[in-house]
Amino acid sequence: QICLSLVKLLFYLAHSPLGSIVLLDFQPRQFVMVDGNLKVTDMDDASTEELSCKEDIDCTLDFPTKSFPLKCSAVGKCEGINEKKNLFNAYRYFFTYLLPHSAPPALRPLLSDILNATGDLRYGINETMRAFEKVLHLYKSGLYLQKRPLLLKDYISLKGFRTVEGEDYKCWPSYSHLGCLLSIHSAEEAAAICNSQSQCQSFIITQQRTWTGRPLASFQSSWTDLIPDTNAVVYIKRSASSGERL
Question: Which of these, 160, 178, 185, lies nearest to 219 by C-alpha position?
Fold first, then answer.
């Protein structure tokens, strides 16, 4: 969410009515999240000036660990230097820390491609925006889910009940520090996640939604403490309930 919001902001800056705008003091502390959107707190160090040049050698974009040769345009300006400077700063301050983590395994190669392409400045902001929108579409639609055996049949569902909330086993990347709370596309995906975790014996799909509209599911190591909840459904592994009276 943070990276996508940042890309949308940089897309606007690259195509603003004033021309391509560069953030000269590009630091994480210069941004805040407001209603799920990343915003710049200080525009004092923003500029629309692009570096003047006479030949390509005048257009090297230097960073502490990398340098990029750019082209000198016919009008004597370094082509796209403001856009590329913003994008590489987004890569080194945000993408490298946030993109490799917390995505479903099937989407990680796509995010790795974005990371590598922006780190080498092979992508401009337009290509980066399209790549992020593709990942978002796959994530929201569930199209990233690979065909696999249906696992939900291995669970008993109890409508009108949920498990007692409390501290349980933890997983990554959980939305709660007290247990294992993950976003899912469907109950079938939740069953696959539960099957992949040795501690998991049951899960409940909550009424909570993430910023993409996906529900959150709470995965738990037991199912015995059930309480009535008309809006809930708890799913229990048949193997866990065998020999027990429901």
Answer: 178
